[in-house]
């Protein structure tokens, strides 16, 4: 499962910062959310099983599920996240995959009512809910929203967290909070996969957390990311006015913007490389028909002054 001292530190953090109900015995250390998804899929699914995913949604999650032979059914998200009541009625659905704190990529927060509906659905159907809580620490206008797992009284939620956003992705460290009755199965699959995770960075991070550095770092980075976010939102408003619709700017390190009718995000993003603009087309995160056109704009690693000049270049790229 990983270093006990590290899992104890994560457990303390999750209980206070994310209202997750857990004990260290339920926490498995993995190499990022990606391995968490892979192990979860191996434990829970057989080829042909039906799972619900958000549309639009995280492409790397879809590749894992497709690789596990799952049938992916798309559930549209809106400003309140996934609405399980709007999911087409399929029989024998095994799980729903959600990003309730900050939907990826549109950035909405799942409302309290929808959280309860989702948990009730899971209990009724005997299905699992997989919560990917990848970047919830960085919320700018209010306190972080408590996890969905913390509301669940029936142990139907598998909670996945990562140090990729809170610290940096090349660490490749994340964790799964596993319902108690599934811990043995997760351990068996893990043993068959890579036996256990490397200990060196776990011990380093355990020290980092025990000494209080993580809390201080989050507070510092929330301020820095907040400044970068403001620079991005203000420059988008100054250069584009109401041209773009901005989505999901209350948390995380990226915002999604949607284009008016008639613009093609893949074509613009290809031209953007000549202006040193790396534009992630929003349409790529859709699997179904009629994807929305726009961009996912990351601001985490870009100083405010570079953001301002990049948005100016984006304006001349799109509007001339
Ligand atoms: C929705 C979502 N989940 C998880 C992650 C982090 O993945 P990992 O922990 O494998 O680096 C990301 C990173 O972009 C993400 O967008």
From TrEMBL:
It holds the Pfam family Aminotran_1_2. Keywords: Aminotransferase, Transferase. CDD domains: AAT_like (cd00609). SUPFAM superfamilies: PLP-dependent transferases. It comes from the Bacteria. Residues 2-260 form the Aminotransferase class I/classII large domain. One of its GO terms (molecular function) is pyridoxal phosphate binding. The keyword Repeat does not apply. This is PLP-dependent aminotransferase family protein.
């Amino acid at each position: 499962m990983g270093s006990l001292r590290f899992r104890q530190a994560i457990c303390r953090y999750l209980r206070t910062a994310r209202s997750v109900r857990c004990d260290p015995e339920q926490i498995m250390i993995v190499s990022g959310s990606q391995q968490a998804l892979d192990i979860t899929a191996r434990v829970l699914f057989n080829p042909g099983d039906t799972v619900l995913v958000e549309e639009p949604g995280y492409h790397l999650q879809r590749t894992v599920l497709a690789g596990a032979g799952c049938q992916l059914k798309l559930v549209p998200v809106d400003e309140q996240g996934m609405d399980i009541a709007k999911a087409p009625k399929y029989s024998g659905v095994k799980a729903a995959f959600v990003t309730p704190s900050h939907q990826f990529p549109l950035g909405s927060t799942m409302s309290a009512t929808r959280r309860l509906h989702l948990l009730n659905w899971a209990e009724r159907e005997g299905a699992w809910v997989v919560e990917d809580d990848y970047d919830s620490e960085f919320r700018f206008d209010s306190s972080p929203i408590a996890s969905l797992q913390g509301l669940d009284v029936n142990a139907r939620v598998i909670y996945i967290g990562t140090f990729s956003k809170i610290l940096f992705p090349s660490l490749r460290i994340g964790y799964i909070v596993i319902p108690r009755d599934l811990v043995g199965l997760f351990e068996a699959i893990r043993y068959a996969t890579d036996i256990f995770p490397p200990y060196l960075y776990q011990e380093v991070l355990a020290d980092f957390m025990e000494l209080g550095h993580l809390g201080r770092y989050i507070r510092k980075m929330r301020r820095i990311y907040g400044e970068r976010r403001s620079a991005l939102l203000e420059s988008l408003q100054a250069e584009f006015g109401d041209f773009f619709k901005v989505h999901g700017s209350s948390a995380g390190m990226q915002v999604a913007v949607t284009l008016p009718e008639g613009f093609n995000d893949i074509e613009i993003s290809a031209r953007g490389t000549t202006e040193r603009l790396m534009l992630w087309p929003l349409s790529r995160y859709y699997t179904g028909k009629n994807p929305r056109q726009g961009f996912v704009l990351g601001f985490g690693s870009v100083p405010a002054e570079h953001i301002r000049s990049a948005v100016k270049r984006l304006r001349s790229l799109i509007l001339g």
